[in-house]
Prior knowledge:
By secondary structure, the chain is an alpha+beta fold. It has one domain (2-78). It is 27% helix and 24% strand. The chain has helices at 36-44, 48-56, 73-78, and strands spanning 2-3, 9-14, 18-23, 28-32, 62-64. It has a five-stranded antiparallel beta sheet. Helix 1 (36-44) runs antiparallel to helix 2. It is globular and about 25 Å long. The chain starts with a strand and ends in a 12-residue tail after the last helix.
Amino acid sequence: MIEVKSSAIRGVEMGSDGLRVTFTSGKSYDYEGVSDEQMHEMISSESPGRYFAQKIKPNHKAVPVDDGPGVTEDDAKSNSPEDLGFGERP
Length: 90
């Protein structure tokens, strides 16, 4: 896992189907179809969390990773940029 400087995201790693994002809550989701280039843009951006909220989350299907109890598809949908502390969408 590549750690990122973000208050919401602990780290990311590429998988066979896209990008796995692990949040500071400990929950992980796979975002389908994210390219290596997008991952590198995200981790090198000034705000990886904002990049994720604006460019990856709204454009790629989130699949919860079963890391244990309490991870649901609704969790993947409920983390709006506002919920993640990034203010309202532009």
